[in-house]
Design brief:
Strand order of the largest sheet: 1-11-9-5-6-7-8-4-10
Shape: globular
CATH architecture: 3-Layer(bba) Sandwich
Distance between the termini: 8 Å
Strand content: 15-25%
CATH superfamily: Putative cyclase
Helix content: 10-25%
Order of helices and strands: EEHEEEHEHEHEEEE
CATH topology: Glucose Oxidase, domain 1
Number of domains: 1
Number of helices: 4
CATH class: Alpha Beta
Structural class: alpha/beta
Largest sheet: 9 strands, mixed
Radius of gyration: 17 Å
Number of strands: 11
């Protein structure tokens, strides 16, 4: 069984949302200080790197991370290549999306240099959301920091997805992943109050 890591590596200086808490790792204790072990400490945004959005991220009444069903983030998934599209629309998915597909990852190829935050992305059109729901989709993933335009304050795609009970996985690395069917695992941490969570996302090839 081949495992494909589709997570962004985290390191000091990893690009995050402008103005958000930057990722930092340092040793709180060194082996020399403690006499036995190195112990690290982290500071980061809940939306650092590859992460899930909980509805509370954009809706004060929305569910927190701990309330989300884990089966959303583990199971069969379809990777759909929309490279070259300016927006993810129902037209760009015609003939590619199979019915009763619970999880879909969109490969846009728009984040080419992951050492810096992108200037432009390929947003998910709110009009595609009912089409996704009609086909059984409950989780979408994207290879970019957001499903909405980077300058959006209305977050129409986020809200439309929430309205149609479709959850969000962002910041995937799909550069070397071919379109097709896989098994996804991208489990969030059990954070009781959080609006999002970093994940270690992997795909397993189906033979």
């Amino acid at each position: 069984m081949k495992i494909i890591d589709i997570s962004m590596p985290l390191y000091n200086g990893v690009p995050g949302w402008p103005g958000d808490t930057p990722y930092t790792f340092e040793l709180a204790w060194t082996k020399e200080q403690s006499g036995s072990v190195n112990v690290g400490k982290l500071e980061l945004s809940t939306h650092t790197g590859t992460h899930i959005d909980a509805p509370y991220h954009f809706d004060n009444e929305g569910k927190r991370v701990i309330d989300l069903p884990l089966e959303l983030y583990n199971g069969p998934v379809m990777v759909i290549d929309v490279t070259g599209a300016e927006e993810v629309t129902s037209e760009s998915l015609q003939g590619k999306l199979k019915g009763n597909t619970m999880r879909v990852l969109f490969k846009t190829g728009c984040w080419k240099d992951r050492t810096s935050f992108p200037e432009n992305i390929v947003p998910v059109s709110p009009e595609v959301v009912p089409f996704l729901q009609k086909n059984g989709v409950r989780l979408i993933g994207v290879d970019m920091p957001s499903v909405d335009p980077l300058d959006s304050k209305e977050l129409q795609a986020h809200h439309s997805l929430h309205k149609h009970n479709i959850h969000i996985l962002e910041g995937l690395v799909l550069d070397e992943v071919q379109e097709g069917e896989y098994e996804l695992t991208a489990l969030p941490l059990p954070l009781k109050d959080a609006d999002g969570s970093p994940v270690r996302a992997i795909l397993k090839e189906i033979y």
